Amino acid sequence: MKRLKREYNIITNTQHKFFSYKLTKDQEFSLQIQASLFLDEQCFLFNKKRIDEQVNKALMDRNEERFHELCQTYEAYLKA
Description:
2 strands, Virus_scaffolding_prot_C, IDEAL_dom
């Protein structure tokens, strides 16, 4: 059975040139997994930073109840 190949256009940031790559089904799957892992990591870092900023704001406002609530959220987020 012949494998289907798809073309992906990749843009480099430095020279703004287009490159066309033909990927096999296995390579396409690998690219999708890598993209998914990258996006997952970026979402994790964004949410971690957001919670951290909220914790700092609660400290600045001297809101002890909010601080403890956010600390529990932060700990649960890091364990997951």
